[in-house]
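Database export, one record per block. Field names are fixed; values are copied verbatim from the stored entry.
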Amino acid sequence: MHPASPAAAATDARPQPRSPRDLFVSFTWLALQGFGGVLAIVQREIVEKKRWLTNEEFLEDWAVAQVLPGPNVINLALMLGDRYFGLRGAMAALAGMLTVPLVVILALAVLYAQFAGNPQVAGALRGMGAVAAGLIAATGIKLLPALKRHPIGFGLCLGFVALVFVAIAWLRIPLGWVLLVVGGAACAWTWRKIAP
């Protein structure tokens, strides 16, 4: 028998979900914290607290989750669940993302229907939007160091980041086109760098 490589040993030693139930509880907790967007929360919980993924793995998986149809965090939950426990894990992670949050959202929808005309409620929701934008920006900044080890180099990665920002924020190009054109170019460039 061949001894395990250091990389394989490090992967085996990394914390991972103990069971599909652990996935369900973890993703339920993530979903319940995710008002206004879950990217910052998912990155903190999955990478920093639970250490199920490294920053680099999170970036790669999040990129795939964004390209797939459907909500990004649902795609990520399905991918992680499948990685550890196959179909059972994928279904447990999906149920965790949807079950309890669905009940909470239905209850909030009933409350909102009664108080939607209240100016304080509208103001509170606008304030939550500002906080969500700050969380997303902070997560993006925290993930930048992971790009230093990217095969195309840190400078070119920053160029792609800037190009995407300009295309979406200033030029208002639809996200699908930006993903197709800029994302396709980044994938092709990376493939050229890592191809034998």
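Remark 1: The helical segments are 6-13, 20-33, 39-49, 55-67, 72-115, 119-143, 154-170, 175-194.
Remark 2: The radius of gyration is 19 Å.
End of record.
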